[in-house]
Amino acid sequence: MRPLSASAAALAMALATSTTAEPIAARVTHPYAGMWVTDDGRVRHELLPDGRYDEARGERESAYRGRYEVTGSRIEYWDDTGFTADGDFVDLDTLHHGGMVLRRRLRPSAPTPSP
Predict the structure, then answer these.
(1) Which residues lie closer than 8 Å to 98 by C-beta, 6 or more apart?
(2) Which residue in 54, 60, 62, 112 has the most C-beta neighbors within 10 A?
(3) How confident is the model at residue 29 (pLDDT cuts 50, 70, 90)?
């Protein structure tokens, strides 16, 4: 992640807390909302349908939060603390981000029933 200048961070925060009359969810027009997880489960991105994201790292839930935008297969993140990041969806179920590969998780894994 790269730090933003103070003015860019202020702009990102203003955009993230926009008070437009149009619902934010109406602006998200991509098929990627949902949970994305590394194969080891350590990094988890939840792309919310309102254009916000919540990232967990290991045991640290909500390690990073902010807004995101998708253009084509490219995703850009603006963290609430002023950092930026990006990634690429290589298909509908695979996200490359920061040297990691995250895969779509359709629903949480259910425990296997005992025999």
Answers:
(1) 1, 85, 87
(2) 54
(3) confident
